[in-house]
Amino acid sequence: MKTSLPASLLKIFQKTNNRAQAGIAILSDKVQLVKLSPAEKGYKCHFFTEVELPAEDQLPQVLARLIREHDLAAAKTNIVIPANRIQSTQIESSELPEGDVQTALPWKVKELINIPPQDMVCDYIDMPLQPTGQGAKTQVLATSRGYLEAIINPFHEANAEIGAITTEQFAYAKLQTTEDAAQLVFIQNKKADAVLLIVKNQEICFARKIRNSAVILEMTPEQLEMGGSDSIAIEIQRSIDYFESQLKQPPIKNALLSMLGDNTETLITALNQVLPVRTKLITIDDVEVPPGLDIRYMAALGAAVYLEPRVTSKQEVVNEN
């Protein structure tokens, strides 16, 4: 079995119909919801909200409330689960189990992932690009079956449909609207390691976590200007070099930052002084958004369109450096 985007962690819950599109992003301290419908060009957002998540064990109650109060029984909902609930590893593609992969894979990776095999739900992705001269690698993603059941049960009880369950990275990739131009996406949430992606044609070609990066949100502008942004610049440059030299790809056109805070513009200015690509804040290109809907909701927006055909543009992204 070969999987390409869109790829969900639990394919058994994927269905198709003509219901409204909803996206839910579960974060460490809140749950976000957006509802979209197709528009003349792209999509229109009719509603968005976020509710506090005081503790993880209250997630079923929070989801039940969203389903009830916002009529998700009349929608098809795709869900992004938080990064701290996902573990991943790579194996040789030739090592994939034969037969019932979904059943056998947890036992194959049990020494590489810290989830008991009997509680593990896995999916895998054959990466679209492979390093020259190396054996093909497969990325394995895993989460807890018990955690998924806590998400799924409120939907089943309300007879509400789940279209797919996926991760933040794949939701962001689905938002790309530029065709045949690789883009680097740097995602930094509060109290979380940053995620760095290189996306092309809505496929993840490269992904990595950058540990201990959340401190950048707490730095003063002076600290950033005096070298506080250097570690981020180095990680971005290393990723660009790997993509272009090891994966033999054309130059990346730009770097998109998804982060909020008082230091965002200062960081962008600092990165533009040292990086060979134009760095700018990520935008929502093909969704008609109401006031207040900003990049905080990117994962939920990506979830909402996750299983939908996407319109892409052949227009080249201009490198303004």
Automatic annotation (TrEMBL):
<dbReference type="InterPro" id="IPR050696">
    <property type="entry name" value="FtsA/MreB"/>
</dbReference>
<protein>
    <recommendedName>
        <fullName>MSHA biogenesis protein MshI</fullName>
    </recommendedName>
</protein>
<dbReference type="InterPro" id="IPR043129">
    <property type="entry name" value="ATPase_NBD"/>
</dbReference>
